């Protein structure tokens, strides 16, 4: 009777295979961090961003409060619908105007049990101090939740991050404080955007316009909120 032989794998081959697997996993993880939403790379310009689309699950990301505490936005654990409004920072005049305008509808949206989160490219300690004085006066006493995305985690995850080298250079030449902003930390800026996300974590509305001068009007945001509340 012929005896079958059991072949044992060469230990060196097992080690090499394990190392190769670990390197592959590390590469995949680094790409997911670097590329964010749907493997879309950080765009060279605002026109090239690839934002998360309506019907897709919103991405998970971490931002910071004004005190520097982490806020984990996890679409799988939402207690109620949310609206995300991204802006470049308090240094941006168009962002200030938009913040001031939205004060007219924010209380009504809050009454619909919808969380409205403003995501700024400024570092935590500059979230409010960098805003114009008249903007701060406009939003004083209102339930404005402004969070820091200076690490660009949200912008990258949402697919709205683009290279900010040109803007960073201009602001440095003007003597502006940019250290700690998403421009200096990650070399990116977010395209100003609005995303509506239902309680199941699904994106139901997205307003992403590469031209930073174009913002969603307050009355249209209110319509978005009404639709979200009824979904």
Characterization of the model:
The protein has 231 residues and is α/β, with parallel strands linked by helices. It folds into two domains: 8-39; 40-229, Glutaredoxin, CATH 3.40.30.10. The chain has helices spanning 11-35, 93-102, 106-110, 133-139, 153-157, 165-173, 182-186, 218-229; strands at residues 61-64, 70-73, 82-87, 115-120, 145-148, 161-163, 188-190, 193-197, 203-208. The chain starts with 10 loop residues before the first helix and ends with a helix. The model is unreliable at 1-9 and 21-36 (pLDDT under 50).
Tally of DSSP helical segments? 8
Give the tally of structural domains: 2
| Helix/strand class | alpha/beta
Series of secondary-structure elements, N-terminal to C-terminal: HEEEHHEHEHEHHEEEH
CATH homolog superfamily of the largest domain? Glutaredoxin
Per CATH, the architecture of the largest domain is 3-Layer(aba) Sandwich
Helix content: 25-40%
Q: Which class of the largest domain in CATH terms? A: Alpha Beta
């Amino acid at each position: 009777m012929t005896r079958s032989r059991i072949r044992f794998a060469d230990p060196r081959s097992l080690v090499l295979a394990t190392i190769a697997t670990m390197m592959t996993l590390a590469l995949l993880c680094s790409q997911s961090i670097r590329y964010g939403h749907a493997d879309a790379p950080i765009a060279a310009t605002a026109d090239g961003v690839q934002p998360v689309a309506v019907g897709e699950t919103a991405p998970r990301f971490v931002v910071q409060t004004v005190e520097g505490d982490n806020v984990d936005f996890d679409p799988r654990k939402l207690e109620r619908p949310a609206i995300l409004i991204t802006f470049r920072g308090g240094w941006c005049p168009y962002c200030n105007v938009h913040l001031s305008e939205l004060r007219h509808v924010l209380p009504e949206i809050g009454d619909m049990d919808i969380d409205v989160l403003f995501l700024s490219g400024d570092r935590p300690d500059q979230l409010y101090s960098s805003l114009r004085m008249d903007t701060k006066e406009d939003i004083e006493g209102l339930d404005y939740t402004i969070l820091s995305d200076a690490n660009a985690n949200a912008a990258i995850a949402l697919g709205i991050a683009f290279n900010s080298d040109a803007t960073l250079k201009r602001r440095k030449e003007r003597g502006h404080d940019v250290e700690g902003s998403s421009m200096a930390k990650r070399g990116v800026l977010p395209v100003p955007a609005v995303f509506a996300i239902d309680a199941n974590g699904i994106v139901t509305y997205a307003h992403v316009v590469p031209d930073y001068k174009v913002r969603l009007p307050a009355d249209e945001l209110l319509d978005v909120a009404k639709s979200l509340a009824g979904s």
